[in-house]
Amino acid sequence: MAATAYTTCPLCEATCGLELTVGDEGQVLGVRGDRQDVFSQGFICPKGASLKALQADPDRLRRPLLRRNGALTEVSWDEAFAEIDRRLPPLLEQHGRDAVAVYLGNPVVHNLSTALYARVLLKALGTRNLYTASTVDQMPKQVSAGLMFGAMLSVPIPDVDRTDHLLMLGANPLASNGSLLTAPDMRGRLRKIRERAGKVVVIDPRRSRTAEHADEHHFIRPGTDALLLFALVHAIFDEGLETPGGLAEHTVGIQTVRALARDFAPEQVEDACGIGAEDIRRMARELALAPSAAVYGRIGTCTQEFGTLASWLVDVLNVITGNLDRPGGAMFPLAAAAQSNSRGTPGHGRGVTFGRWRSRVRGLPEVFSELPVATLAEEIDTPAAPGGPGPLRALVTIAGNPAVSTPNSGRLTRALESLDFMVSLDVYVNETTRHADVILPGPSPLERSHYDFALYQLAVRNVANYSPPPLERDPDTPPDWETMLRLTAIVAGQGPDSDIQAFDRFVAMQAVQREVAMQDGGLHGRDADEVLTALDGRRGPERLLDLMLRAGPYGDAFGARPDGLTLATLEAEPHGIDLGPLRPRIPEVLRTPSGKIELAPEPIVADVERLRAARTRTGNGMVLIGRRQLRSNNSWMHNVEPLVRGKERCTAHVHPDDAARLGLADGAPARVRSRAGMVEVPVEVTENVMPGVVSIPHGWGHDVDGIRMSVAREHPGTNSNLLADETLIDPLSGNAVLNGIPVELTPVA
Ligand code: SF4
Fold first, then answer.
1. pLDDT at position 636
2. Does the pLDDT value for residue 288 go beyond 80?
3. Can you give the pLDDT at residue 312?
4. pLDDT value of position 524
5. Which of 480, 553, 594, 611 has the maximal Cβ count within 10 Å?
6. From the CB of 445, is ligand 1 less than 6 Å away?
7. Are 343 and 523 spatial neighbours (Cβ–Cβ below 8 Å)?
8. Average pLDDT of the segment spanning 79-101
9. 307-320 helix and 225-238 helix, angle to the nearest 10 degrees
10. pLDDT for position 342
11. Cα 328 from chain centre
């Protein structure tokens, strides 16, 4: 007889509740949205429904692979770990800890095990060479939030359920389902803004699905969002519309921003942006005069040369219009289980510090302990300078595919081939892991427990939802956290046969001690031993999660607040718990040394000069931008047939005027060339893209030797990151520039 199980979709930031129908033999018979889910209320997108096909995918790895005589061969877990133990520690011994790099892919954050245990592995490894997908995505927003509010995840979220006016730049939530904005069913939420006579304005070089559902859309020349945003700031000050209200007493730097904005009058930037000065001034007025309003910028505003400036200006607008931290504005969620760096003494903190070390070749600063992934290839393929440190020798990738997801994929692919050793934790042999010496697969997403502790820190409502694994895990496949602890034991020099449970208790004790240290006099009067004892009966990520929940703002405080949350409370509520709408949190949320909102942080002010020089640019060549697609989840879901069937989706969108000028025909291939590389891709002529802009979605390019993704190979598409230039970055965040890359287009003869 079929059974019903509930879980949270682990594929994107929307955290939709899923209802699974499970057959007698553990097979998934159906997936649909959980109508009782307190947050998503039945919403589901095609990706969530495809988890059934992912579960059944015969290409998904179930056993470790080890390279023998050049070929990846299935082996036992013990053989795989023995090989890692044989090869990795000697490399560390001979070349030092920094000779090994780690790359964390986007799915790491959607997996409770990897999200909590990656840091354990990194600490034991002791390398300064950490790379993640954040520097091809949202790092500029985290940098601006860190500098303004004091913590990397203190990112204000548009209160879409109550706002009267939403101005979105570089965001396409109808395809992405929200990003740095956890909000299932964004289409429905946007529709409701309009139904209550509010207004939705979209700024994007493409007329995206989101733009089609907005009241107003403006094309903008790629890479000029910061100019437009500064012009809006200018117009608001110019017309005396600034109304920070109660925020003023909690903010420093307003006059500095006012002075900086003088150079960015709408009339000075209109040619560069492609949006007329009158429209800019009207948009500024409507934003400032709306009863409530929120400005929201996402990936398009981050993956560009002025990413941090654009991210900062989004929140400058939210502050000077008085919309930060009030209902209907941009607000700070209060998650039930928060990361420790957003905890600490309410109202002030140490703020953020960057550049504690630098990349070896280009000398770029670390940001939140990461180096820009745009430097990964050069860190492998550039020999040591005389007397200087050597290149990377080994790489550990966890749920990542940098060979497709990061700029100048061609160079990185060649670099990966030259490594002495590579280990990947992944469920596919993909464009990256095909280079690995050992691949360690994990349980499928439906064989894992789930709690989105990172994403609930970015949610439009305060919610909490824990799901135990809806399907039984193959007993031969260890949970990811155990795999990561065995790797940790290896790099710590203790070998793969260490007592993992003892190791895990040690990890839990360290986490408890951190919590205790954050609260003078112990955790609600209990010392670390007492707290750890209270968590007995749980292990792995569940023990750490229970700790975070119980010590968190809604927690039971280990008995001090008997009605408070524990993991057991969430286990009894399979559809989640609604903790209410977002509430004002200033000044308590601030962690800056001044205890204020830093509206004009020094590193950002220093970067404005670079933007000033860009005011007179009027691009005359073609530039490349990306494109988010509803049925794509970056690169890794293209082996799921329901998501790739139908007409070719990896196409180059070109405006009809450009197509005519360049001799390009709809459906025919074009050759696209940049400084970094060249690809051929079919053209789709459409008025939905701005003249002068070509749009190619990322995550494709599965036509390479050695991958074991049979469905993806039949729908390979083209890797747009072969064109992205690894030398172009946003200097403050190290984020790659993936939008606004100069390219040439020619027809394929
Ligand atoms: S919107 Fe995201 S979380 Fe929801 S079903 Fe789709 S992929 Fe899953």
1. 82
2. yes
3. 98
4. 75
5. 480
6. no
7. no
8. 98
9. 20
10. 52
11. 24
pLDDT band at 521 (very low <50, low <70, confident <90, very high): low
Please write the tens of the pLDDT for every residue from 236-263. 999 999 999 999 999 999 999 999 999 9
- Return phi, psi of residue 500, to 5°: -65, -35
Mutate which of 7, 9, 181, 182 for ligand 1? The one with the most ligand atoms within 8 Å of its CB, which is 9
Q: How far is CA 402 from CA 128, 434, 708, in A?
A: 18, 12, 17
Q: Phi, psi (5° rounding) for residue 693? A: -125, 135
The letter for the amino acid at 408 is: N
Indicate whether residue 676 lines ligand 1 (CB < 6 A): no
If we measure between CA atoms, which residue out of 2, 8, 11 comes closest to residue 574? Answer: 8
**pLDDT tens digits, one per residue of 478-511:** 999 999 999 999 999 999 999 999 999 999 999 9
Percent of the chain at pLDDT exceeding 90? 91
Residue 205: which of 585, 619, 729, 728 has the closest Cα?
Answer: 619
The reported pLDDT for the residue numbered 47 is: 94
* 3-state class percentages of the chain: helix first, strand second, coil last, to nearest 5: 35, 15, 45
DSSP 33-57: E-TT-TTTTT---HHHHTHHHHHH-
Quick: pLDDT tens for 599-626: 999 999 999 999 999 998 877 799 999 9
What is the tally of helices (H) and strands (E) in the chain? 26, 28
Q: Which amino acid is at 360?
A: R
Query: How open is the CA angle 119-132-481, to the nearest 5 degrees?
Result: 35
Q: What is the pLDDT of residues 630-681, one digit of tens each?
A: 988 888 889 999 999 988 999 999 999 999 999 999 999 999 999 999 999 9
Q: Is the CB of 177 under 6 A from ligand 1?
A: yes
Ligand 1 centroid vs 171 CA: distance in angstroms?
A: 17
Residues 298, 170 contacting (CB under 8 angstroms): yes
Instruction: For residue 512, give the nearest of 533, 537, 484, 490 by alpha carbon.
Output: 533
Distance in angstroms (rounded) separating the CA atoms of residues 712 and 117 = 30
Q: Report the distance separating Cα 689 and Cα 219, nearest Å.
A: 8
DSSP 150: S
Q: What is the pLDDT of residue 617?
A: 82
Instruction: Give the pLDDT mean for 51-80.
Output: 97
Burial of 337 (0-12, 13-18, 19+ CB in 10 A): buried
- Do residues 321 and 330 touch, judged by C-beta distance below 8 A? no
CA–CA distances in Å: residue 372 to residues 80, 103, 365, 569, 734: 30, 11, 8, 40, 5
Using DSSP's 3-state secondary structure scheme, residue 702 falls into coil
48 in contact with ligand 1, CB cutoff 6 A: yes
CB-ligand 1 contact for 183 (6 Å cutoff): no
Q: Whose CA is nearest to atom 5 of ligand 1?
A: 48
- Coil, helix or strand for 304? coil
List the structure tokens of 552: 């968190």
What is the average pLDDT across 569-589? 97
Contacts of 572 (CB under 8 A, 6+ apart): none
Helix runs in 467-601, H state only: 480-491, 500-518, 528-534, 540-551, 567-571
C-alpha span between 147 and 167 (Å, rounded): 23
Token pair, residue 131, equals: 């790379």
Q: Does 97 have pLDDT greater than 80?
A: yes
Cα–Cα distance between 34 and 19 in angstroms, integer?
5
Residue 718 Cα, ligand 1 centroid: separation in angstroms?
Answer: 25
